[in-house]
Amino acid sequence: MTPKRIVVAGCGSIGKRHARLLAARPDVQVELFDVDRDQVARTVETIGPVAVHESYAAALDSKPDAVVIATPVPAHAEQSIDALAAGAHVLCEKPLCDTVANGRRMAAAAQATDRLFNVGFVMHFHPACRRVRELIQSGALGRILHVHWHVGTYLTLMLSVSRHQASLEGALLLDYAHQPDVTHWWLQERPTSVFAAGCKGGSQPLQSNPNVLALTMEYDRPLLATLHLNYVQHPASAHCEITGDEGWVHMDMEAGELCIGNRARETVVRELHRPERDALYIDQFDAFLTAIEKQGEPESPVEDAMVSMAIIEAALASWRCGEPVPVPC
Length: 329
Description:
The mean pLDDT is 97. The protein is α/β, with parallel strands linked by helices. Helices cover 36% and strands 26% of the residues. The chain is built from 11 helices and 15 strands. The longest helix has 20 residues.
């Protein structure tokens, strides 16, 4: 079988990971593009000699089979639309883009082609997240009343190559689009409104505005989802608690542990789910390439990604105005 040519656009920290993992596959021929030539050179040092394109337009003119977009968020919309128009399948890193309006343009472009368009919500492949989804969908927890996330990590700022968080207002929510996305993936319910409060503070040298944020999502039934996000904690802390009227789950992402409580039996069961981080991305690429080969459906379609984009846009509007904001349809 002829290897698929895949251009990785963007050689920052996540782009390097994509390039490294794809380069290890016998069914893929990796090619690179980034405006930062130093980052391209560092990626080549890591993965070995590969084709490097002088511009994004040149990369698309070469007619690759697929493009992985790992560039800064404001570039996602135009680069995805251009790649689809050039006949390439697309895996666009999360978040989908920077605005709901741009997301709608991306959705229209995806619907106008037979190319696969997938958004890189890699947490869908985390076994702990998949186990929680199974518990919710099976009814084991009863009717879900509350989902609460706490994610704090200064490490994101430390690892960022572009340092875009320093100048991109609201980068905290965009970087952690995983949490609203996974919440929707679990519940399959769209919030009606959000309220967000945030601030910028602390003495750490790397900063973003805000670097601490609390978000509440309301639904059209008795259900709340709350998110605490920060760019301050180091070492990182990441956990989530899901409360239903028949049971509950506490998920510690750093420890890879689930605690599952059952009301009727008055028991708590512990499970360990500790995958290597690379394994999640390998599974994501397996699903992406299989869907291309079999003309299947994307694991994270643009329509689902639009929900998290709508939540983020409403949350940023709420943070700025200090009032609850409806989530746009």
